[in-house]
Protein backbone atom coordinates (compact mmCIF):
# COMPACT_ATOMS: atom_id res chain seq x y z
CA UNK A 1 0.00 0.00 0.00
CA UNK A 2 1.30 3.45 -0.79
CA UNK A 3 2.15 5.74 2.10
CA UNK A 4 -0.06 8.77 2.56
CA UNK A 5 2.19 11.84 2.64
CA UNK A 6 2.10 14.93 4.85
CA UNK A 7 2.80 17.80 2.48
CA UNK A 8 3.77 21.34 3.46
CA UNK A 9 2.89 23.37 0.33
CA UNK A 10 4.05 26.97 0.44
CA UNK A 11 3.37 29.66 -2.15
CA UNK A 12 3.21 33.45 -2.40
CA UNK A 13 -0.21 33.41 -4.08
CA UNK A 14 -3.17 31.03 -4.02
CA UNK A 15 -6.63 31.29 -5.66
CA UNK A 16 -9.14 32.50 -4.63
CA UNK A 17 -7.26 34.54 -2.00
CA UNK A 18 -4.60 36.37 -4.03
CA UNK A 19 -3.54 36.09 -7.65
CA UNK A 20 -1.31 37.80 -10.15
CA UNK A 21 -0.83 34.81 -12.46
CA UNK A 22 -0.90 31.07 -13.02
CA UNK A 23 1.08 30.27 -9.86
CA UNK A 24 -2.06 31.10 -7.89
CA UNK A 25 -4.20 28.77 -10.02
CA UNK A 26 -1.76 25.92 -9.46
CA UNK A 27 -1.43 26.53 -5.72
CA UNK A 28 -5.18 26.66 -5.20
CA UNK A 29 -5.94 23.46 -7.08
CA UNK A 30 -2.97 21.06 -6.97
CA UNK A 31 -3.20 20.56 -3.17
CA UNK A 32 -6.87 19.56 -3.58
CA UNK A 33 -5.93 17.02 -6.25
CA UNK A 34 -3.21 15.64 -3.95
CA UNK A 35 -5.78 15.30 -1.20
CA UNK A 36 -8.02 13.30 -3.55
CA UNK A 37 -5.09 10.92 -4.11
CA UNK A 38 -5.13 10.25 -0.37
CA UNK A 39 -2.42 12.66 0.85
CA UNK A 40 -2.46 15.24 3.56
CA UNK A 41 -1.46 18.67 2.23
CA UNK A 42 -1.53 21.94 4.11
CA UNK A 43 -1.01 25.24 2.29
CA UNK A 44 0.75 28.33 3.62
CA UNK A 45 0.73 31.88 2.18
CA UNK A 46 0.96 35.49 3.44
CA UNK A 47 -2.11 37.32 4.74
CA UNK A 48 -2.00 40.22 2.29
CA UNK A 49 -3.90 43.39 3.00
CA UNK A 50 -6.56 42.43 0.44
CA UNK A 51 -7.44 39.22 2.30
CA UNK A 52 -10.24 39.90 4.75
CA UNK A 53 -9.29 38.58 8.20
CA UNK A 54 -12.86 38.59 9.42
CA UNK A 55 -13.70 35.69 7.09
CA UNK A 56 -10.88 33.55 8.55
CA UNK A 57 -10.34 31.75 11.85
CA UNK A 58 -7.58 32.90 14.12
CA UNK A 59 -5.12 30.23 15.22
CA UNK A 60 -4.62 31.07 18.91
CA UNK A 61 -1.25 32.30 20.14
CA UNK A 62 1.30 34.46 18.34
CA UNK A 63 4.13 32.59 16.64
CA UNK A 64 7.77 33.64 16.85
CA UNK A 65 9.89 33.49 13.70
CA UNK A 66 13.68 33.91 14.09
CA UNK A 67 15.01 36.40 11.52
CA UNK A 68 18.72 36.74 12.37
CA UNK A 69 19.72 40.35 13.06
CA UNK A 70 16.05 41.43 12.96
CA UNK A 71 15.46 39.29 16.04
CA UNK A 72 12.34 37.23 16.46
CA UNK A 73 9.29 38.49 14.58
CA UNK A 74 5.93 37.69 16.12
CA UNK A 75 3.34 36.82 13.50
CA UNK A 76 -0.34 35.97 13.67
CA UNK A 77 -1.78 32.94 11.91
CA UNK A 78 -5.23 32.68 10.35
CA UNK A 79 -6.81 29.68 8.72
CA UNK A 80 -9.66 28.36 6.59
CA UNK A 81 -9.96 25.63 3.95
CA UNK A 82 -9.50 25.79 0.19
CA UNK A 83 -12.98 26.11 -1.37
CA UNK A 84 -14.93 22.85 -1.73
CA UNK A 85 -12.30 20.84 0.07
CA UNK A 86 -10.92 19.86 3.45
CA UNK A 87 -7.44 21.16 2.63
CA UNK A 88 -6.39 23.65 5.34
CA UNK A 89 -4.75 26.87 4.27
CA UNK A 90 -2.83 29.05 6.74
CA UNK A 91 -2.16 32.75 6.37
CA UNK A 92 0.90 34.36 7.93
CA UNK A 93 -0.13 37.76 9.24
CA UNK A 94 2.57 40.39 9.65
CA UNK A 95 1.21 43.83 8.97
CA UNK A 96 4.57 45.50 8.47
CA UNK A 97 5.49 43.17 5.57
CA UNK A 98 2.21 42.14 3.98
CA UNK A 99 -0.16 45.01 4.80
CA UNK A 100 0.38 46.74 1.46
CA UNK A 101 -1.68 47.26 -1.67
CA UNK A 102 0.41 45.00 -3.94
CA UNK A 103 1.74 41.47 -3.60
CA UNK A 104 5.26 42.16 -4.81
CA UNK A 105 5.25 45.74 -6.06
CA UNK A 106 3.59 49.12 -5.49
CA UNK A 107 1.05 50.85 -7.76
CA UNK A 108 3.85 52.05 -10.05
CA UNK A 109 5.20 48.57 -10.57
CA UNK A 110 8.25 49.20 -8.33
CA UNK A 111 9.20 45.98 -6.49
CA UNK A 112 9.19 46.41 -2.72
CA UNK A 113 12.78 46.84 -1.55
CA UNK A 114 12.35 44.38 1.32
CA UNK A 115 10.97 41.49 -0.74
CA UNK A 116 13.88 39.36 0.46
CA UNK A 117 12.85 39.77 4.10
CA UNK A 118 9.15 39.41 3.27
CA UNK A 119 9.55 36.02 1.65
CA UNK A 120 12.25 34.64 3.93
CA UNK A 121 9.73 35.37 6.68
CA UNK A 122 7.08 33.38 4.81
CA UNK A 123 9.49 30.46 4.28
CA UNK A 124 10.62 30.34 7.89
CA UNK A 125 7.12 30.89 9.23
CA UNK A 126 5.99 27.79 7.31
CA UNK A 127 8.54 25.71 9.24
CA UNK A 128 7.52 27.26 12.53
CA UNK A 129 3.88 26.62 11.74
CA UNK A 130 4.47 22.91 11.08
CA UNK A 131 6.10 22.75 14.51
CA UNK A 132 3.25 24.62 16.12
CA UNK A 133 0.69 22.28 14.52
CA UNK A 134 2.84 19.26 15.37
CA UNK A 135 2.71 18.34 11.68
CA UNK A 136 5.37 15.74 10.80
CA UNK A 137 6.30 16.66 7.27
CA UNK A 138 7.16 14.15 4.53
CA UNK A 139 7.30 16.63 1.69
CA UNK A 140 8.22 20.31 1.72
CA UNK A 141 6.94 21.73 -1.58
CA UNK A 142 8.23 25.23 -2.37
CA UNK A 143 7.26 27.34 -5.40
CA UNK A 144 9.33 29.89 -7.32
CA UNK A 145 11.98 32.17 -5.81
CA UNK A 146 9.75 33.39 -2.97
CA UNK A 147 10.02 30.12 -1.06
CA UNK A 148 13.15 28.76 -2.73
CA UNK A 149 15.11 29.18 0.52
CA UNK A 150 13.15 26.33 2.10
CA UNK A 151 15.34 23.43 0.87
CA UNK A 152 18.45 25.06 2.35
CA UNK A 153 16.61 26.13 5.53
CA UNK A 154 15.60 22.51 6.03
CA UNK A 155 19.24 21.39 5.80
CA UNK A 156 20.53 24.11 8.12
CA UNK A 157 18.26 26.16 10.39
CA UNK A 158 15.72 23.35 10.83
CA UNK A 159 18.07 20.40 10.46
CA UNK A 160 17.63 18.99 13.94
CA UNK A 161 13.91 19.38 14.27
CA UNK A 162 12.07 16.06 14.42
CA UNK A 163 9.15 17.43 12.38
CA UNK A 164 11.40 17.64 9.33
CA UNK A 165 13.85 14.81 10.04
CA UNK A 166 12.23 12.58 7.41
CA UNK A 167 11.15 15.18 4.93
CA UNK A 168 12.41 15.78 1.44
CA UNK A 169 12.18 19.04 -0.51
CA UNK A 170 10.71 19.85 -3.91
CA UNK A 171 11.06 23.18 -5.66
CA UNK A 172 8.71 23.96 -8.55
CA UNK A 173 9.86 26.62 -11.01
CA UNK A 174 6.87 28.37 -12.57
CA UNK A 175 8.90 31.13 -14.18
CA UNK A 176 12.67 31.39 -14.52
CA UNK A 177 12.58 35.08 -15.35
CA UNK A 178 12.09 35.94 -11.69
CA UNK A 179 14.94 34.51 -9.61
CA UNK A 180 14.91 36.63 -6.46
CA UNK A 181 18.24 38.45 -6.68
CA UNK A 182 19.19 40.39 -3.53
CA UNK A 183 21.94 41.99 -1.49
CA UNK A 184 23.99 39.27 0.20
CA UNK A 185 23.15 40.48 3.71
CA UNK A 186 20.00 38.37 3.51
CA UNK A 187 22.19 35.36 4.38
CA UNK A 188 22.31 36.61 7.98
CA UNK A 189 18.52 36.85 8.04
CA UNK A 190 18.23 33.34 6.63
CA UNK A 191 20.75 32.11 9.23
CA UNK A 192 22.13 29.48 6.88
CA UNK A 193 25.85 30.17 7.20
CA UNK A 194 28.19 32.04 4.87
CA UNK A 195 29.70 28.82 3.51
CA UNK A 196 26.64 28.84 1.24
CA UNK A 197 27.76 32.07 -0.36
CA UNK A 198 29.59 30.48 -3.29
CA UNK A 199 28.85 30.25 -7.02
CA UNK A 200 27.61 26.66 -6.87
CA UNK A 201 25.11 27.66 -4.25
CA UNK A 202 23.38 30.97 -3.37
CA UNK A 203 25.90 33.35 -4.87
CA UNK A 204 25.49 35.15 -8.20
CA UNK A 205 27.52 38.24 -9.11
CA UNK A 206 28.24 39.02 -5.46
CA UNK A 207 24.56 38.91 -4.54
CA UNK A 208 22.18 36.22 -3.41
CA UNK A 209 20.11 34.39 -6.01
CA UNK A 210 17.28 32.65 -4.15
CA UNK A 211 16.17 30.40 -6.98
CA UNK A 212 19.72 29.25 -7.67
CA UNK A 213 20.20 28.21 -4.05
CA UNK A 214 16.85 26.44 -4.14
CA UNK A 215 17.90 24.41 -7.17
CA UNK A 216 21.17 23.47 -5.48
CA UNK A 217 19.52 22.16 -2.34
CA UNK A 218 16.11 20.76 -3.34
CA UNK A 219 15.90 16.99 -3.54
CA UNK A 220 13.94 17.44 -6.76
CA UNK A 221 13.25 20.41 -9.00
CA UNK A 222 10.16 20.41 -11.15
CA UNK A 223 8.88 22.79 -13.75
CA UNK A 224 5.51 23.02 -15.40
CA UNK A 225 6.06 21.36 -18.79
CA UNK A 226 8.53 18.88 -20.25
CA UNK A 227 9.58 21.23 -23.01
CA UNK A 228 10.36 24.02 -20.50
CA UNK A 229 12.44 21.55 -18.45
CA UNK A 230 14.60 21.13 -21.57
CA UNK A 231 14.58 24.84 -22.41
CA UNK A 232 15.76 25.72 -18.90
CA UNK A 233 19.08 24.12 -19.77
CA UNK A 234 19.68 26.59 -22.60
CA UNK A 235 20.90 30.19 -22.71
CA UNK A 236 17.80 31.40 -24.57
CA UNK A 237 15.44 30.50 -21.73
CA UNK A 238 17.35 30.21 -18.44
CA UNK A 239 18.18 33.89 -17.77
CA UNK A 240 21.77 32.98 -16.87
CA UNK A 241 21.11 29.78 -14.93
CA UNK A 242 21.47 27.36 -17.89
CA UNK A 243 24.71 25.77 -16.66
CA UNK A 244 23.36 25.46 -13.15
CA UNK A 245 20.19 23.80 -14.43
CA UNK A 246 22.17 21.51 -16.68
CA UNK A 247 24.35 20.49 -13.74
CA UNK A 248 21.22 19.57 -11.77
CA UNK A 249 19.33 17.98 -14.67
CA UNK A 250 19.39 14.57 -12.97
CA UNK A 251 16.73 15.75 -10.53
CA UNK A 252 14.82 18.04 -12.91
CA UNK A 253 11.34 16.94 -14.05
CA UNK A 254 8.64 18.52 -16.21
CA UNK A 255 5.04 18.08 -15.05
CA UNK A 256 2.35 19.80 -17.06
CA UNK A 257 -0.23 21.85 -15.14
CA UNK A 258 -3.85 20.77 -15.23
CA UNK A 259 -7.05 22.73 -15.59
CA UNK A 260 -9.85 23.09 -13.10
CA UNK A 261 -12.67 21.96 -15.40
CA UNK A 262 -15.27 22.89 -12.81
CA UNK A 263 -14.26 26.50 -13.41
CA UNK A 264 -13.42 26.27 -17.08
CA UNK A 265 -16.07 24.33 -19.03
CA UNK A 266 -18.50 25.94 -21.49
CA UNK A 267 -21.23 23.48 -20.46
CA UNK A 268 -21.35 24.76 -16.85
CA UNK A 269 -19.54 28.11 -16.89
CA UNK A 270 -21.46 30.57 -14.67
CA UNK A 271 -19.92 33.66 -16.27
CA UNK A 272 -21.18 33.13 -19.81
CA UNK A 273 -24.66 33.89 -21.07
CA UNK A 274 -25.13 30.81 -23.30
CA UNK A 275 -23.78 27.38 -22.46
CA UNK A 276 -22.45 25.03 -25.12
CA UNK A 277 -20.46 21.85 -25.71
CA UNK A 278 -19.37 19.63 -28.61
CA UNK A 279 -22.93 18.36 -29.14
CA UNK A 280 -24.62 21.76 -29.01
CA UNK A 281 -22.39 24.47 -30.39
CA UNK A 282 -24.95 27.16 -31.17
CA UNK A 283 -24.33 28.77 -27.76
CA UNK A 284 -20.81 29.63 -28.85
CA UNK A 285 -22.04 31.85 -31.67
CA UNK A 286 -24.36 33.56 -29.19
CA UNK A 287 -21.47 34.12 -26.77
CA UNK A 288 -19.54 35.66 -29.66
CA UNK A 289 -22.38 38.04 -30.49
CA UNK A 290 -22.81 38.91 -26.84
CA UNK A 291 -19.14 39.69 -26.45
CA UNK A 292 -19.15 41.89 -29.55
CA UNK A 293 -22.25 43.73 -28.36
CA UNK A 294 -20.56 44.36 -25.04
CA UNK A 295 -17.70 46.14 -26.81
CA UNK A 296 -19.70 47.70 -29.62
CA UNK A 297 -18.06 45.58 -32.32
CA UNK A 298 -20.41 45.06 -35.28
CA UNK A 299 -21.63 41.51 -35.87
CA UNK A 300 -19.76 40.97 -39.14
CA UNK A 301 -19.09 37.56 -40.71
CA UNK A 302 -15.45 37.56 -39.60
CA UNK A 303 -13.50 35.61 -37.00
CA UNK A 304 -12.97 37.10 -33.54
CA UNK A 305 -9.53 36.64 -32.01
CA UNK A 306 -9.13 36.94 -28.22
CA UNK A 307 -6.18 37.75 -25.98
CA UNK A 308 -6.12 37.48 -22.18
CA UNK A 309 -2.92 37.94 -20.22
CA UNK A 310 -0.35 40.09 -18.60
CA UNK A 311 1.00 42.81 -20.87
CA UNK A 312 4.57 41.64 -20.36
CA UNK A 313 7.45 40.96 -22.72
CA UNK A 314 7.11 37.22 -21.96
CA UNK A 315 3.71 37.15 -23.62
CA UNK A 316 4.99 38.38 -26.98
CA UNK A 317 3.18 41.72 -26.76
CA UNK A 318 5.96 43.54 -28.61
CA UNK A 319 5.54 41.19 -31.56
CA UNK A 320 1.79 41.65 -31.44
CA UNK A 321 2.18 45.43 -31.37
CA UNK A 322 4.46 45.23 -34.42
CA UNK A 323 2.03 43.26 -36.61
CA UNK A 324 -1.42 44.30 -35.37
CA UNK A 325 -1.71 47.24 -37.71
CA UNK A 326 -1.20 44.88 -40.66
CA UNK A 327 -3.60 42.29 -39.31
CA UNK A 328 -6.34 44.78 -38.62
CA UNK A 329 -6.78 45.30 -42.37
CA UNK A 330 -7.71 41.64 -42.85
CA UNK A 331 -11.24 40.34 -42.31
CA UNK A 332 -10.99 39.92 -38.55
CA UNK A 333 -11.88 41.47 -35.19
CA UNK A 334 -9.91 41.41 -31.94
CA UNK A 335 -10.80 41.57 -28.27
CA UNK A 336 -7.98 42.07 -25.76
CA UNK A 337 -8.02 41.87 -21.95
CA UNK A 338 -4.87 42.66 -20.06
CA UNK A 339 -2.88 44.92 -17.85
CA UNK A 340 0.81 45.48 -17.24
CA UNK A 341 3.42 47.49 -19.06
CA UNK A 342 2.21 51.04 -19.52
CA UNK A 343 3.40 51.46 -23.12
CA UNK A 344 1.33 48.43 -24.11
CA UNK A 345 -1.78 49.68 -22.31
CA UNK A 346 -1.43 52.97 -24.18
CA UNK A 347 -0.59 51.40 -27.51
CA UNK A 348 -3.57 49.02 -27.48
CA UNK A 349 -5.90 51.76 -26.19
CA UNK A 350 -4.86 53.80 -29.19
CA UNK A 351 -5.67 50.85 -31.49
CA UNK A 352 -9.11 50.56 -29.93
CA UNK A 353 -9.72 54.28 -30.45
CA UNK A 354 -8.61 54.19 -34.08
CA UNK A 355 -10.37 50.96 -35.08
CA UNK A 356 -13.50 50.83 -32.90
CA UNK A 357 -15.19 48.32 -35.21
CA UNK A 358 -12.28 45.92 -35.29
CA UNK A 359 -10.28 46.19 -32.10
CA UNK A 360 -11.78 46.08 -28.58
CA UNK A 361 -9.84 46.40 -25.35
CA UNK A 362 -10.39 46.29 -21.63
CA UNK A 363 -7.40 47.35 -19.56
CA UNK A 364 -7.60 45.72 -16.15
CA UNK A 365 -8.06 42.42 -14.42
CA UNK A 366 -11.48 40.84 -14.83
CA UNK A 367 -12.10 37.14 -14.24
CA UNK A 368 -15.67 37.09 -15.61
CA UNK A 369 -14.59 38.83 -18.80
CA UNK A 370 -11.73 36.37 -19.25
CA UNK A 371 -14.32 33.56 -19.31
CA UNK A 372 -16.47 35.50 -21.77
CA UNK A 373 -13.51 36.02 -24.09
CA UNK A 374 -12.62 32.33 -23.94
CA UNK A 375 -16.20 31.43 -24.81
CA UNK A 376 -16.92 34.04 -27.45
CA UNK A 377 -13.71 34.07 -29.50
CA UNK A 378 -12.95 31.86 -32.48
CA UNK A 379 -9.20 31.88 -31.90
CA UNK A 380 -6.96 32.74 -28.96
CA UNK A 381 -3.71 34.61 -29.46
CA UNK A 382 -0.74 33.56 -27.27
CA UNK A 383 2.55 34.10 -29.10
CA UNK A 384 4.75 34.00 -25.97
CA UNK A 385 8.52 34.37 -26.22
CA UNK A 386 8.65 31.78 -23.46
CA UNK A 387 5.86 30.04 -21.61
CA UNK A 388 6.66 27.61 -18.79
CA UNK A 389 3.20 26.07 -19.07
CA UNK A 390 0.50 28.60 -19.83
CA UNK A 391 -3.08 28.04 -18.77
CA UNK A 392 -5.11 30.19 -21.12
CA UNK A 393 -4.32 28.13 -24.21
CA UNK A 394 -5.57 25.04 -22.35
CA UNK A 395 -8.74 26.85 -21.26
CA UNK A 396 -9.16 27.90 -24.89
CA UNK A 397 -9.09 24.29 -26.08
CA UNK A 398 -12.01 23.43 -23.83
CA UNK A 399 -14.06 26.31 -25.31
CA UNK A 400 -13.24 25.38 -28.91
CA UNK A 401 -11.30 28.62 -29.23
CA UNK A 402 -8.35 27.53 -31.33
CA UNK A 403 -5.02 28.74 -29.95
CA UNK A 404 -2.49 30.55 -32.13
CA UNK A 405 0.80 29.96 -30.32
CA UNK A 406 4.54 29.95 -30.59
CA UNK A 407 6.04 26.48 -30.16
CA UNK A 408 7.67 26.99 -26.78
CA UNK A 409 7.34 25.48 -23.29
CA UNK A 410 3.86 24.36 -22.36
CA UNK A 411 2.39 25.93 -25.50
CA UNK A 412 4.32 23.41 -27.57
CA UNK A 413 3.40 20.52 -25.26
CA UNK A 414 -0.34 21.22 -25.28
CA UNK A 415 -1.14 22.46 -28.80
CA UNK A 416 -0.85 20.27 -31.87
CA UNK A 417 -0.42 22.13 -35.14
CA UNK A 418 -3.20 21.99 -37.74
CA UNK A 419 -2.41 19.50 -40.47
CA UNK A 420 -4.88 19.75 -43.38
CA UNK A 421 -3.61 16.56 -45.03
CA UNK A 422 -4.20 14.30 -42.06
CA UNK A 423 -7.01 16.46 -40.75
CA UNK A 424 -5.40 16.63 -37.32
CA UNK A 425 -4.31 19.29 -34.84
CA UNK A 426 -5.87 21.60 -32.26
CA UNK A 427 -4.41 24.99 -33.13
CA UNK A 428 -1.92 27.04 -35.15
CA UNK A 429 1.78 27.06 -34.24
CA UNK A 430 4.94 28.79 -35.36
CA UNK A 431 8.55 28.31 -34.30
CA UNK A 432 10.62 31.47 -34.58
CA UNK A 433 9.58 34.57 -32.64
CA UNK A 434 9.58 36.83 -35.71
CA UNK A 435 7.02 39.33 -36.93
CA UNK A 436 6.68 37.44 -40.20
CA UNK A 437 5.97 34.13 -38.51
CA UNK A 438 3.35 35.66 -36.23
CA UNK A 439 1.63 37.63 -39.01
CA UNK A 440 1.42 34.68 -41.37
CA UNK A 441 0.23 32.24 -38.72
CA UNK A 442 -2.62 34.56 -37.71
CA UNK A 443 -3.47 35.04 -41.38
CA UNK A 444 -3.40 31.26 -41.89
CA UNK A 445 -5.85 30.81 -38.99
CA UNK A 446 -8.18 33.46 -40.44
CA UNK A 447 -8.05 31.74 -43.84
CA UNK A 448 -8.86 28.33 -42.38
CA UNK A 449 -11.85 29.86 -40.56
CA UNK A 450 -13.02 31.45 -43.80
CA UNK A 451 -12.24 28.88 -46.48
CA UNK A 452 -12.18 25.56 -44.61
CA UNK A 453 -15.11 25.92 -42.19
CA UNK A 454 -15.68 22.19 -41.95
CA UNK A 455 -12.04 21.50 -41.01
CA UNK A 456 -12.21 24.38 -38.53
CA UNK A 457 -15.30 22.91 -36.84
CA UNK A 458 -13.74 19.46 -36.62
CA UNK A 459 -10.63 20.97 -35.11
CA UNK A 460 -12.78 22.75 -32.52
CA UNK A 461 -14.34 19.45 -31.50
CA UNK A 462 -10.94 17.76 -31.19
CA UNK A 463 -9.73 20.67 -29.06
CA UNK A 464 -12.79 20.53 -26.80
CA UNK A 465 -12.31 16.83 -26.19
CA UNK A 466 -8.67 17.13 -25.12
CA UNK A 467 -8.23 16.91 -21.34
CA UNK A 468 -5.44 18.15 -19.09
CA UNK A 469 -6.65 17.09 -15.69
CA UNK A 470 -5.21 17.98 -12.31
CA UNK A 471 -5.48 14.35 -11.36
CA UNK A 472 -2.86 13.47 -13.98
CA UNK A 473 -0.63 16.31 -12.83
CA UNK A 474 -1.02 15.33 -9.17
CA UNK A 475 0.04 11.77 -10.04
CA UNK A 476 3.17 13.23 -11.60
CA UNK A 477 3.98 15.12 -8.38
CA UNK A 478 3.22 12.05 -6.33
CA UNK A 479 5.74 10.06 -8.36
CA UNK A 480 8.39 12.75 -7.79
CA UNK A 481 7.60 12.85 -4.06
CA UNK A 482 8.13 9.08 -3.71
CA UNK A 483 11.23 9.30 -5.86
CA UNK A 484 12.79 11.85 -3.50
CA UNK A 485 11.90 9.78 -0.45
CA UNK A 486 13.38 6.62 -1.97
CA UNK A 487 16.50 8.46 -3.02
CA UNK A 488 17.06 10.28 0.22
CA UNK A 489 20.30 8.41 0.87
CA UNK A 490 21.65 9.57 -2.48
CA UNK A 491 20.25 13.05 -2.06
CA UNK A 492 21.89 13.50 1.32
CA UNK A 493 25.26 13.24 -0.39
CA UNK A 494 24.52 15.43 -3.36
P1 LIG B 1 1.10 33.67 -16.25
O1 LIG B 1 1.06 32.95 -14.95
O2 LIG B 1 2.45 33.70 -16.88
O3 LIG B 1 0.50 35.03 -16.19
P2 LIG B 1 -0.80 31.63 -17.15
O4 LIG B 1 -1.40 31.41 -18.50
O5 LIG B 1 -0.22 30.47 -16.49
O6 LIG B 1 0.22 32.83 -17.31
O7 LIG B 1 -1.92 32.15 -16.14
C1 LIG B 1 -2.52 33.38 -16.25
C2 LIG B 1 -3.80 33.35 -15.46
O8 LIG B 1 -4.18 34.68 -15.14
C3 LIG B 1 -4.95 32.74 -16.20
O9 LIG B 1 -5.83 32.12 -15.27
C4 LIG B 1 -5.62 33.98 -16.84
O10 LIG B 1 -6.97 33.79 -17.13
C5 LIG B 1 -5.42 35.00 -15.79
N1 LIG B 1 -5.32 36.38 -16.26
C6 LIG B 1 -4.23 37.02 -16.74
N2 LIG B 1 -4.51 38.32 -17.03
C7 LIG B 1 -5.81 38.49 -16.73
C8 LIG B 1 -6.71 39.62 -16.79
N3 LIG B 1 -6.30 40.81 -17.24
N4 LIG B 1 -7.98 39.45 -16.36
C9 LIG B 1 -8.39 38.23 -15.91
N5 LIG B 1 -7.61 37.15 -15.82
C10 LIG B 1 -6.33 37.27 -16.22
C1 LIG C 1 4.02 31.07 -14.53
C2 LIG C 1 4.20 30.88 -16.03
C3 LIG C 1 3.05 30.18 -16.70
C4 LIG C 1 2.56 29.01 -15.87
C5 LIG C 1 2.26 29.46 -14.45
C6 LIG C 1 1.76 28.34 -13.55
O1 LIG C 1 3.40 32.25 -14.19
O2 LIG C 1 4.49 32.10 -16.68
O3 LIG C 1 3.43 29.73 -17.98
O4 LIG C 1 1.40 28.45 -16.45
O5 LIG C 1 3.41 29.99 -13.87
O6 LIG C 1 2.67 27.27 -13.45
Major sheet: arrangement of strands: 3-4-5-2-1-6-7-11-12
Strand content: 15-25%
CATH superfamily annotation of the largest domain: Glycogen Phosphorylase B
Q: How many strands, which pairing sense, and closed or not: the largest β-sheet?
A: 9 strands, mixed
Overall mean confidence score, pLDDT: 96
The helix fraction, in percent, is: 25-40%
CATH topology of the largest domain: Rossmann fold
N/C terminus separation: 29 Å
Q: How large is the count of helical segments?
A: 18
Name the shape in a single word: globular
List low-pLDDT spans: none
Number of domains: 2
Offer a quick outline of the entry.
By secondary structure, the chain is α/β, with parallel strands linked by helices. It folds into 2 domains: 6-258 and 471-487, Glycogen Phosphorylase B (Rossmann fold, 3-Layer(aba) Sandwich), CATH 3.40.50.2000; 282-467, Rossmann fold. The protein has helices spanning 22-36, 95-98, 115-132, 150-155, 186-190, 210-217, 226-231, 242-247, 282-295, 317-327, 342-354, 367-376, 392-398, 409-414, 435-451, 453-465, 470-486, 488-492; strands at 6-10, 40-46, 57-66, 72-81, 88-93, 139-143, 168-173, 181-182, 203-204, 207-209, 220-223, 252-254, 304-311, 333-340, 359-363, 379-382, 402-406, 428-430.
Polypeptide structure, described:
This protein is of the alpha/beta class. It folds into 2 domains: 6-258 and 471-487, Glycogen Phosphorylase B (Rossmann fold, 3-Layer(aba) Sandwich); 282-467, 3-Layer(aba) Sandwich (Rossmann fold). Helix content is 37%, strand content 19%. It has 18 helices and 18 strands. The protein has helices spanning 22-36, 95-98, 115-132, 150-155, 186-190, 210-217, 226-231, 242-247, 282-295, 317-327, 342-354, 367-376, 392-398, 409-414, 435-451, 453-465, 470-486, 488-492, and strands at 6-10, 40-46, 57-66, 72-81, 88-93, 139-143, 168-173, 181-182, 203-204, 207-209, 220-223, 252-254, 304-311, 333-340, 359-363, 379-382, 402-406, 428-430. It has a 9-stranded mixed sheet with strand order 3-4-5-2-1-6-7-11-12, sandwiched between helices. The protein has a 6-stranded parallel sheet with strand order 15-14-13-16-17-18, with helices on both faces. Helix 13 links the parallel strand 16 (379-382) and strand 17. Alpha-D-glucopyranose (GLC) binds next to helix 1.
Amino acid sequence: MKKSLNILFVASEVVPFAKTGGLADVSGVLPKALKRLGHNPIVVMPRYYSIDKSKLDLVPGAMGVPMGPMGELWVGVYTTTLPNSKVPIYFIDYEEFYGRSGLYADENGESYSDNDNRFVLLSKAAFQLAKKLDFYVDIIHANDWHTASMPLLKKTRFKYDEHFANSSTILTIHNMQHQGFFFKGIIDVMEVGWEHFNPLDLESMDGVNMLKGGVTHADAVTTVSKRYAQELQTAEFAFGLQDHMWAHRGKLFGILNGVDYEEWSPAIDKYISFRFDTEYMSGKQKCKDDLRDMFGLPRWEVPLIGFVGRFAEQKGIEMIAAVIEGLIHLDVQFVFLGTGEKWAEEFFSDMAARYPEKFALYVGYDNALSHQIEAGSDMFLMPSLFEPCGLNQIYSLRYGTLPIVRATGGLDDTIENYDPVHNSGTGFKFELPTHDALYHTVKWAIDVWKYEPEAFREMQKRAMKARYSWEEAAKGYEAVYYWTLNNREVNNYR
